[in-house]
Amino acid sequence: MDNTLHDLIVQLGDLRTQKKALEYEANQIGRSIELVERDLIMVMDAQHITESKSAAGKVTVGEAVYPQVQNWDEFHQWILENGYLHFLERRAAVLAYREALGQNIPVPGVLPFTKRKITFKEA
Question: Is 107 a domain residue?
Fold first, then answer.
């Protein structure tokens, strides 16, 4: 390891700055893509088509249904009453787990994992 601590901090700062710039650019491109996709859907809907092709590529309008929970209490009650636990994602809530640990409440089936990371603040 030939780098000094200062050199490594400078490298980290430079890389994070580059990443922010690229993320901003990617977000801008993403917004442009969303606008073009919206326009494509409008044009294709007006023409009553769901698929089109050109020399540049092929597009297909697809649809997918997603849940939008309006009342979490009712939803959770329904899940519990029917045993439909598969309606929930398989991820433990980090903040609730940390709170349980802080109160010495054992959580069956779960082991703590400590992830170390660097926090960087620009000078």
Answer: no
Which pLDDT does position 1 carry in this prediction? 66
Q: Which residues are paired to 21 by β-bridges?
A: none
With a threshold of 0.85, does the pTM exceed it? no
Domain-located, residue 66: yes
The amino acid sitting at 3 is N
The answer to whether residue 110 is domain-embedded is no
Strands 57-60 and 51-54: antiparallel
- Residue 109, phi-psi category: left (phi > 0), alpha (psi -120 to 50), beta (remainder): left
Does 121 fall in a domain? no
Residue 64 — φ and ψ, nearest 5°?
Answer: -145, 140
Instruction: Give residue for tokens 């029917």.
Output: 82
